[in-house]
Amino acid sequence: MTAVDLRVAQRPNAPVTTYRYDEYDAAFVRERVAEFREQVRRRLSGALTEEEFRPFRLMNGLYLQLHAYMLRVAIPYGTLTARQMRRLADIADRWDKGYGHFTTRQNLQYNWPKLVDTPDILEALADVEMHAIQTSGNCIRNVTADHFAGVAPDEIEDPRPTAEFLRQWSSLHPEFSFLPRKFKIAVTGAEHDRAAIMVHDVGLRILRNERGEIGYQVVVGGGLGRSPFVGKIVGDFVPREDLLAFLEAIMRVYNRFGRRDNKYKARIKILVHEKGIDEIRAAVEAEFAAMDCSVFSHDPAEFERIASFFAPPPYETLPAASSALRTAKLETPAFANFVDVNVSAHKIPGYAIVTVSLKPIGGIPGDATSEQMRVLADASERFGFGELRVSHEQNIILPHVKQDDLLALWRMLEPVGLATANAGLVSDIISCPGLDYCSLATARSIPIAQAISKRFSDMSRQRRIGKLGIKISGCINACGHHHVGAIGVLGLEKKGQESYQITLGGDPTFSASIGEILGPGVTADQVPDVIEHLVDFYLAERAEGEAFIDTWRRIGHVRFKDVLRREGEDGADI
Amino acid sequence: MALISEGRFVEDSWRRLADEEALPKTGEVIVSLPRLEHALEVLGTESSLGVIVPNTTEPSSLIQALPRLQLISISFPAFSDGRGFSLAALLRRAGFKGELRASGRLVADQYAHAIGCGFDTIEIPDDLADRQDEEQWRVALNTYSMSYQRGYAGRGSILEARRRAARS
């Protein structure tokens, strides 16, 4: 432990803001590290071939990438403590190049670890109750959740106890660790979907029925990748009592009948698409009916035990609006912009949710240096009960900041490049690592994100444009979620040249839709031009307060296509 | 082929019968699935009967035969093909009490998964057994003290342990 860790651990009133391991969890993670250490040893001795080693290293988050190994660390439901964030910084310094990359699945990737060091890295993670279990491989992946969990005003129930419950259930599952393909679960407990549950293998939406009971709407078969699908409802209201049994039934149907002849058709979305949701629902219900549900039945004491870790921190009683904040905004316009764009309403009066953008103008989306990680850890302790979140938009959230403290927080973030006031704006771009790192990529993504970001570097113009999600993938696997970007960019390779396909109208929320292709691919240089034209057209056409996707839905895809065609005839290089 | 039982390489008392071989009157024999019906008719109670089935077998198709079978071997066409794990769990749920065997290129790291789903023994090709000796299988079996799931065999359940701790 560092001196700071010790101080934090010893602070008697340090609130518990996330799940803490008990002796069983701690033993499990240590055993996992020991197992992996042994697996690495056996790989090096030749007892395991690379083909045999592969699924086991993947189930520990270790990929072989373009230049080196990549280690993906699990951040369950995106929640981190300050201590954990500091440890991530330490690992970045000791075993990587001083930075890490936050991903669209709320995880963190190190791009330069050595195979022989990875057991030690996992050990260092286990010290702070972290791991890299099931961040890759054909198994149930790290469970994600709404990054505003527990603090959003529109919440029915905090989704994280459910997500933690599922994290444990899915860890090294005897039956479901060699699935046809990867399996991703997301949970939301709010009226607005910030967890993109409609585009996951299974999406869970917490609902309360008219009798006041909690249950789950279960959505299955959503996904992006080369064949994008919006998920379909397989259970309207599964009582909490039955959730585990119902999920076991889905997993068993998928494990038995999911396609294994073609890895591109192996996700559950293809099974749902080919068989139809009615047949899948019937199969799941039949399996559920045949199961001894008592084995999986809900354990209220265990659920309460888990939920107790997510109890609200000791908030102060404050007025709903802070006069200090109002004054500070008037005096410091740059701060006012930050507050207007990056601060969201909190369910507790006088508090705010702060989105710290990891998308500086011209920067690499989702990257953070070890120095930035440490500043974030310090900031969370000074202003936010020591809790941090990772959003699937690849930003960091400080979920409980007093409005009175926002100015001091901003002053702390600003010098280290963490005060970019662009959360949700056109330069808050989601991007996969692309050809710069990834062995699957067919085109670069990061430089495209950087070019777009620079094109819109005028922040007042960005604010005029308003919320607009641009998402970029460097290949058809769609890790950058381009299908659900209001504007999506997909990098392909055509005859040895990078070619970028633009899509419009994607939506990752409950009203999910997959973007439609705008026209023929364009070159890397043209992408910022095309996007600028589209944005200008939107600005000219939008009704008062209308978001890009709503304008697009109202006036139609063809109008946007027409604009580009016309611009092209006028000599613009599109 | 090498057979692993309870963390040890053991002698296999069962004989896998080729389809053209005549059915012996006594002993422990494993027949292929297409031959099962005939074997059940012909063989008396003196011989022990086992069957090897593909991992795509519908468990209901074996229900009638279950009380007469002493062994079911499920083939794993690839170690990464997990269908055999679900089939094993379903056969146990259907009440099969005999030996469940996983047959294929399974690696030691899957041993605990196999035990959890109800398998008793693992049958692997000799070249694999040469690389992955008994020690590796024994280590793999004892890597984890407990597991998070309930309703699976083998290690103790963490959920159960927490319940007991909460009661006491």
**Overall radius of gyration of chain A:** 23 Å
> Largest beta sheet of chain A: what is the strand line-up?
1-2-5-4-13
What is the H/E order of chain B?
A: EEEEHEEHEHEHHEEH
Say which CATH homologous superfamily of the largest domain in chain A is assigned: Sulfite Reductase Hemoprotein, domain 1
Give the percentage of residues in beta strands of chain A: 15-25%
As a percent range, the share of strand residues of chain B is 25-35%
The number of domains of chain B: 1
CATH C-level class of the largest domain in chain A is Alpha Beta
Overall geometry of chain B comes to: globular
Distance between the termini of chain B: 48 Å
Calculate the terminal CA-CA distance of chain A, rounded to whole Å: 56 Å
* CATH architecture name of the largest domain in chain A: 2-Layer Sandwich
Helical content band of chain A: 25-40%
User: What count of structural domains of chain A?
Assistant: 4
Q: What is the averaged pLDDT score of chain A? A: 93
Gross morphology of chain A is: globular
Structural class of chain A: alpha+beta
Report what the structure shows.
The complex is a heterodimer of chains A (574) and B (168). By secondary structure, chain A is α+β, with helices and mostly antiparallel strands. Chain A folds into four domains: 17-127, Sulfite Reductase Hemoprotein, domain 2, CATH 3.90.480; 151-308, Sulfite Reductase Hemoprotein, domain 1 (2-Layer Sandwich), CATH 3.30.413; 323-416, Sulfite Reductase Hemoprotein, domain 2 (Alpha-Beta Complex); 430-569, Sulfite Reductase Hemoprotein, domain 1 (2-Layer Sandwich). Helix content of chain A is 38%, strand content 16%. Chain A has 20 helices and 20 strands. Chain A has helices at residues 3-10, 23-45, 50-58, 82-95, 118-127, 160-170, 243-257, 268-275, 277-290, 293-296, 300-308, 323-331, 333-342, 370-383, 406-413, 446-455, 459-465, 526-541, 548-555, 557-569; strands at residues 62-64, 69-73, 79-81, 99-102, 108-110, 144-145, 185-188, 202-208, 214-220, 232-239, 343-345, 351-356, 367-369, 387-390, 396-402, 430-431, 470-473, 487-494, 497-504, 516-517. In chain A, the strands form four sheets. In chain A, strands 1-2-5-4-13 form a five-stranded antiparallel sheet. Chain A has a five-stranded antiparallel sheet with strand order 3-14-15-12-11. In chain A, helix 12 crosses helix 13. The longest helix of chain A is centred in the N-terminal third of the chain and has 23 residues, at 23-45. Chain B has 168 residues and is α/β, with parallel strands linked by helices. Chain B has one domain (2-167). Helices cover 29% and strands 25% of the residues of chain B. Chain B has helices at residues 36-42, 83-93, 111-116, 126-131, 134-141, 158-167, and strands spanning 2-5, 8-10, 15-16, 27-32, 47-53, 71-76, 99-104, 121-124, 146-147, 156-157. Chains A and B meet through helix 2, helix 3, helix 7 and helix 11 of A and helix 2, helix 3, strand 9 and helix 6 of B.
